[in-house]
Amino acid sequence: MLAAIDQHRDGLFELSLRIHKNPEIGYEERQASTWLATFLEGAGFRVQRGYKGVETAYRADAEGKDRGPTVAILSEYDALPDIGHACGHNLIAMMGVAAAVGVRAALDQLPGRIAAMGTPAEEGGGGKVALLGAGGFDDVDVAMMIHPSSRTLAGRTSLASNRVDIEFTGRAAHAAAQPDRGISALDGVIQAFNAVHAMRLTLRPDARVHGIITSGGSAANIISEYAAAKFSVRALDRQYQQEVLKRFIACAEGAALSTGTTLKVTIHENSGYENMVPSSPLADRWAQHASEQGLQVMAGAPDERMGSTDMGNVSQVIPAIHPYIAIAPEGTPGHSTLFRDAAGTPEALANALKAAKAMALTAVDVLADRELLERAKVEFEDRRKEGVVRGRMTS
Questions:
Q1: Residue 298: beta bridge partners?
Q2: What is the pLDDT of residue 394?
Q3: What is this structure's pTM?
Q4: What is the DSSP secondary structure assignment for residue 8, as one 8-state letter?
């Protein structure tokens, strides 16, 4: 299995670098998804393109010698606007494909099935949320993927989040000659930002509310009739995040009332990311294999910094892991040009391949070791009873 990954090394590195050089934002990753699906077809997988009606998603299956569990190995490949692969999703794509190709080489000795799944639009578009809603994980027992970072970790949690658009409508007028005839939509946006700044003083330390103005007007001498902003509202757990979301909406409503504008709030359904809850048995097994591959796995800190991921939604439904692999010096900020450049270096590719081998070994353990899978399922069920995870929705 490991030899098969090494045999595909050059092709895997070329695939990662090609995606890195041709960034595509969420739900527009037509080149990347095609390249990945074609690679997997060439490795003997049966590929469904446009999986579950999501144009840039795919699923590539390969079966073992007998019936058994299904392990999903996930890839992400969307880039960030303006700064490209500054989150290193080109490496996530490569690691998912590499691990799947490795497991595929050993499946004639194993029960079960591997599903290499392409999940688009992680950066706010919620590709995994869309696939979950369409039943794309209904037959999956466990799921796994690896994310680039500046440290190697077996896992950590993430922040629950929502993406929210706020739009204010006022009345245009000449800003010098007839200011009293106008109602400034831009004032509504600015007041909303001011209210959010005040609200932050009474939020828990794990909460995050941040946004940008996407439209503020067309000229300085026109009182703006329309203005808009995009926000992300996050917290460590879903319950508190929903409380913060309600307070945020109240801030926007108050801004509209005080400025005489009308308000439209849009909460994007697919961007409703839940907090990540890693499976301890699977994360521990990945850490063991990563160490054997020569990676230094670090312990997570109590004050670990974190963002949000739609892998959190997957972890709420089935046992899942989302380890991190160091590709840049510790402290290098994600979503930066520094991190983007690191994601295309030979060092990053080499470390990512080691991490992919550890993931392939972990997937094989799930297929071959009934005790490991049972421990993961028992832990998940205990967490479901405690309300830590949701579990599968029943009709």
A1: 153
A2: 58
A3: 0.90
A4: T
